[in-house]
């Protein structure tokens, strides 16, 4: 079955070759042969294709370097000028020399010649040739995750593909790669104990598998694993040889200049301190030695200097001192490159990774040679700190981005599950590409697993910038179809977008509401405040995701069950169970304080969630007969959020009988169920026992505009002596009250019906108005679909000039309030960073005809404000007003700086409860 739709990067080219749109590669009987040029890299690609064909057909393809060995069907692979290519080019009707000098491009054509079918794959260079092979493999039905996530190729009786002539485009980003990092809890123990115990660590067997995956994802650059527990890449001589065989460009992180892993390679006892000011000669010799070792390799050399690990430079305590040392160091590193390689430094790829104090020094005036690539970094949480300005974009070395999908550090790690929202990756990397960061993109993928999809998405955007025109959900849908079949594509994409949405509100790793560096203890979740309803809603949302994921899992054939567990089911259930353990325990504490009999039942739910986490992790490590043993750890760094809590137990309340809570709070006139005429809405009543005596209950409601999810039942041990009732208002005129008979008494819940509002877009809902700002648009704004707590966001255009005052046509929102009280106006943005740090991230906001309020969402460094922002994916600016009369109001908003990303606005009136996250908007 052809999968041409997967390859938007391929361009059809006209040719005189005799070819058909559909070419048969295998008809069930005929042998396939593969002929390749003498290049060692191409030989490896030919063997990989042979293995793929064997997996698909059951028959190995004969691999040779001689055209005379061609069988009836023959795949010929080589670089554009290889003899095996040039001998067939005329018969194929193509000119391979057209690719001479191109970067990582390939051509492909199927044709008949002298009674045989040929498939000619020719590349502009080694990697171009490789991508021609991997694209063919993928089109035939081999997923990039065939080994790393067990998406096993399926046996077929016939193989066909589009044989029309084609030439691929050049990659959008020149160097695209991954960083294996924080490997202590997955990749390193798995490699050392499972994949290559003879090495006892990450070694050539692991890197071979990594390189094959990079081929299939069209990545060309690797920053290798570098923690203290890992044998350094150059510590095993087989590793760099393997990288060259696979045509992988090697680089190193911001903490590893000149291809050196300081943490493992610098011996302070023998060499002295890693302090350039007092130990210059030994450090220069140390760098010179590595340059000599790598002189024949394809490398990108990181210039600069940091401490032994991911820490500040030794011997320089001020910014000015660090800048001076760096200025000297980079000049000397360039001299080393010149003298060791005997070539001009500007001909050797180099990068300066602007991370932490390295960016501070650059911003303070550090001068870099213009051929050195400026590699900007995100803030570790997915928001790119800075990009090149107009002058910097003129540099010959260009710029790039170092991005995180996994991170160890403050304010909190996220090393366990891959939860970065695809829409955030899309927005930040589209911005980066638009501002010419196109030389190097490296993404920190931690242990690779379980960040499979996000890794592929990042690298797809890097390879083909045309994909920025595609909605992230559509990309995910196509990916799901490739892994699990077209019938599962939409269900899988929908549930995974729900998974990313919930993590965007708060990642599972952050559910302890604690921080790291220093590590603080777990505290009560803000989701449970003030009444537990946000916690209940989050638990329900996760339970729904799990049910949908398990429904898909139950329909999958056996050859996809491991893959689905690894990439979908384990992350979804893992996130759900960690949330369940934490939120149910917090609800137990809340309900115990309220004297509910259900408190211990919630403890039992939390305990069951922990046991499920343990069981799922054991299942993961046992998959495929132990192939992944030691890969998954449910408690990286043993941080408090991951550890099994102490399980409390409460005695039964001395009070007796039934009670009801409206939206989790004790009933009073202000907490009556409130509805707005003509506005359908659902609310919740919790009916519960104070003691553990079983009781029947029933209810009746006045009028026909309210429907209740249940009208009778029994409070017993099985339901925790409580019943959650959903009250649905249909917009009519007759409501309530609701009388609940339980345990010999009647509990009455009153209702309020507010008058129909004026014809405005938004109305007051429980003393607040929530306005999704992407509900409007304007010439100064671009819409970011799928990003934000309200569903979509607006970004002020990247080309917008900074303005001193509000000008142009504002975004205008109308809303209605019912209460004449004081309150606040908050504008909620995403915590992106300023394109121009000197001006900030400002907008101007006006309520009715009041004064303009200028709000600046920019943060400084790792400030407390920034720390709070990245944990909740929000930047919030607020002002207060003394009184807002009931009636119709207008909120106006103007951009003052480019790149501001706005989510929603909230008008909160005095008396409104404080909830975590966004409360559902009430629209007319």
Task: Summarize the structure in words.
The chain is α/β, with parallel strands linked by helices. It has five domains: 4-168, Chitobiase/beta-hexosaminidase domain 2-like (Chitobiase, domain 2), CATH 3.30.379; 176-473, TIM Barrel (Alpha-Beta Barrel); 497-642, Up-down Bundle (Methane Monooxygenase Hydroxylase, Chain G, domain 1), CATH 1.20.58; 658-754, Immunoglobulin-like, CATH 2.60.40; 762-909, Jelly Rolls. Helices cover 30% and strands 23% of the residues. The protein contains 19 helices and 39 strands. Strands 12-11-10-17-16-15-14-13 form an eight-stranded parallel β-sheet. A seven-stranded mixed β-sheet has the order 1-9-6-7-5-3-4, with helices on both faces. The longest helix is centred in the middle third of the chain and has 36 residues, at 558-593.
